[in-house]
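The following block was generated as part of the benchmark described in Methods. Ligand: pyridoxal-5'-phosphate.
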Amino acid sequence: MAHSTPIYMDNHATTRTDPRVVEAMLPYFSEVYGNPGSVGHEYGAEAHTAVELATASLAAQLGADPQEIIFTSGATESNNLAIRGLAERNQRRGKHLVSVRTEHRAVLDPLERLVQQGYEVTLLEVERHGSTRAGWLDPEQVAEAIQDDTILVSVMLANNEIGVIQPLAEIAAVCRHSGVLLHCDATQAVGKIPVSVRELGVDLMSFSGHKIYGPKGIGALYVRRGSPIVRFSPQITGGGQQGGRRSGTLNVPGIVGMARALELCIDELPTEEERLAGLRDQLFAGLQERLSGVQLCGPTLDERNPAGDRLRLPGNLDVAFGDIDGEAVLIEMDNLAVSSGATCSSHEPGPSHVLLALGLSEDLARSSLRFGLGRFNTPAEVDSAIKSVTSAIEKLRKLAG
Ligand SMILES: Cc1ncc(COP(=O)(O)O)c(C=O)c1O
């Protein structure tokens, strides 16, 4: 019997590369394959031009200047470059950093390393489970945490598990007032909601190709130019590419692909946000209708800030079922690809640190499922997902007696 592939609803983990992105990338593997640093001949010059055009496009889509974009291998490297690079360079000014409990491990781990090296890190709390703004960070908390020796605040724009969107513009105003630089991990937000570095007022911002229907292995760090100067130490040194800020031969197909991917996201954003929010609401309503004890993790689905902006990513749903193990549900469903809060990531044992930070018990966190709806999902797939989850949970509940 032919094996039918499971429905993919794990778009926070990664996305399928859009065929239009693949098409844009293809010439840069075997036709325009020069090293963009070798501008003395046509092969290199063409690759260099392609990188310049892609950089200009990416920067324009994010409200940045092309010189403010540094290419990396992904958001993990961008976060490391921002946090460790800045801490290393500014240690004589201070050794205190501020971040949030619900950040991605690609922020928390570099911070933990800094603590081992003698830095001090304050991790802020977020609104608790049950609040309509669960997971939200009050900018007031940032103001209270800043000390005379604080050199960096790092707050993500959208959370990869509960989709909460943080008030970055307000946090930036707090940081600016105190003369402290602000880094933002915008990996889950770029391409999903409107993002402009100038409007947000961030000094550094990380993002990644594979979360926006682009390729894996490419990302970028935006570093604001102008005053006050953002100084950081490079973390990867060598050939001096990108002004020495990040050495290594540029990933030309990746850069072209990420730029095309962002163009497509931005073109489709006005309709896609509404479409995904509709699918997500359909999914939540269906689960609530068929199953008892469904608890929403994170902010209320239709929650907005006073300016009318969403407080939750349109394609995100995270729900806990209370009495079953999320991993067991995943094993039970062979036709649906989602992830569970039983393990925060496949590399981290134990329940999700994000859900624990909201105040969920370990058991409740373990019983959760995270859905990331994306470009290729349809209403019919949502109906199938509701059926799969319902029958898996009903079966597990029956077995548990
Ligand atoms: C919020 C956030 N930051 C950073 C990363 C790491 O991104 P990359 O896979 O590009 O290194 C992820 C990926 O899961 C993420 O969701």
